[in-house]
Amino acid sequence: MKSIKIKDKEFDLFIEEEKISESIQRIADKMNVELDGKDPVFLAILNGAFMFAGELMKKVTIPSEITFVRLASYRGISSTEQVQEVLGLNESIEGRTLVIVEDIVDTGNTMVALMKQLNELNPKEIKIATLLFKPEALKNPLNLDYVALRIPSDFIVGYGLDYDGYGRNLSDIYKLKS
């Protein structure tokens, strides 16, 4: 098994790039049908979702826009349980179909806080797309419309996800060695 070291931690190969790409294609195909004619705005959450958003948008064929916000809720390998808006939304989403593009949903704390803020801007509807979902870690009820991959509650890096800022550039996803 392929393994890597990032800073002081060892990680093993968990999900290869090909499987990630196939999973993104599957949800893009679903979006192309379900969102056709809705002129959606995709809202990618930085920093983690940049690779997922880039790959997803290459596969979404319907007319749409993309914009970005930056939120922070992680430090090291654990959630801080607090969401801080770092870079805000500049485009109007009033009356629009909004698709949040997130790298990972685990506890759901980030998504609940973000949904509360976004609902105040009166979108027509909000949909959630996530590359990765950890159902065992979920603490808040959420309706996830587009889930590329379901994973266990391991700490992972790669494909946009990081450990203290490192590892986002990896094309595969790795999990922390236990």
List the helices and strands and how they pair.
Blueprint: E1 3-6, E2 9-15, H1 17-34, E3 41-46, H2 50-59, E4 65-75, E5 78-87, E6 97-105, H3 109-119, E7 125-133, E8 146-150, E9 156-157, E10 173-176
Parallel strand pairs: 3-4, 3-6, 6-7, 7-8
Antiparallel strand pairs: 1-2, 2-10, 4-5, 9-10
Helix pairs in contact: 1-2
Architecture overview:
The model has no long low-confidence stretch (mean pLDDT 91). The strands form 2 sheets. Strands 5-4-3-6-7-8 form a 6-stranded mixed sheet, with helices on both faces. Strands 1-2-10-9 form a 4-stranded antiparallel sheet. It has 178 residues and is of the alpha/beta class. It is built from 3 helices and 10 strands, in the order ββαβαβββαββββ. It has helices at 17-34, 50-59, 109-119; strands at residues 3-6, 9-15, 41-46, 65-75, 78-87, 97-105, 125-133, 146-150, 156-157, 173-176. It is globular and about 45 Å long. The chain has one domain: Rossmann fold (3-Layer(aba) Sandwich).
